[in-house]
Amino acid sequence: MTTNTWQGRTAVITGAASGFGLETALLAARKGMNVVMADVMMEALGEAVSQVQALGAPVLSLRCDVRHAADIEAMGAATLARFGAPHLVFNNAGVGAGGLIWEHTARDWDWVMGVNVMGVAHGVRVFTPMMLAAEKADPGYSGHIVNTASMAGLVSMPNMGVYNVSKHAVVALSETLYQDLRLVSDRVHAHVLCPYFVPTGIAHSERARPQDAQEQGRKATASQRVAQGLIEKAVASGRVTAADVARFVFDALEADRFYIYSHPKALAPVTTRAEEIVSATNPSDPYRDRPELGEQLRAALRR
User: Fold this and answer.
1) Distance in angstroms (rounded) separating the CA atoms of residues 9 and 32
2) Given CB 3.0 to 4.6 Å as the disulfide criterion, which of 72, 109, 170, 241 pairs with 149?
């Protein structure tokens, strides 16, 4: 699919109020697309919608808690009624959480897995049949489903617990979707986005935590405070922007490239992990190239 063929087509984007979602919505608008924007943070979503509409794009905005099947089913029905079957579905909504894996509460697990995994699963379940039906009905139709995972879905860094688990699940879901689509379709494609540290709102995910996922009076553990500080520092120092990542996404769609990376030069740990799996070698120290960081983390957690 070349750049000019996006004109008049439709993009559905979750987590559209900020970060990758907003920048992808803005780029879609510049390409002449209709844009469906969904998020759980309504004030931020309203501001984001105004930016996209200012570019002349028709916009459908919805409050959507992607944990809930009914919310995404309603978004699918509204999209079909307003614009027809979408050509790009960006299952992008995500939240972060750090800390030692045994210190996550049941609500932590429910919230992070609900947003990061079930949000993608619901998007795939609702929109894929719609896109396959459009392919059968229209010889000129083509579609793309992009799921946001993370480099944390390809390696397993310590003190990132439930987040690692959720993003590994998204990678597996996306790889399976890719293979399943190849069995039944020639023009509906799957992709997985695996960004590294990029300045977005992921470090402040707690602000988007719904009331039913909160625990009144709970204090963060030492490992969670350490993780929060490290994530904030790493994300803030990122040089690749969310707008860059939006461009990378569209470049990958036009090249029909499955894996989408923000930092391809940071893939060495992925190679190491694969080699250790094949050789049945115990996982190596992730900080072996920067031992001072490992020592700082151990010291902070053993106080």
Assistant:
1) 8
2) 170
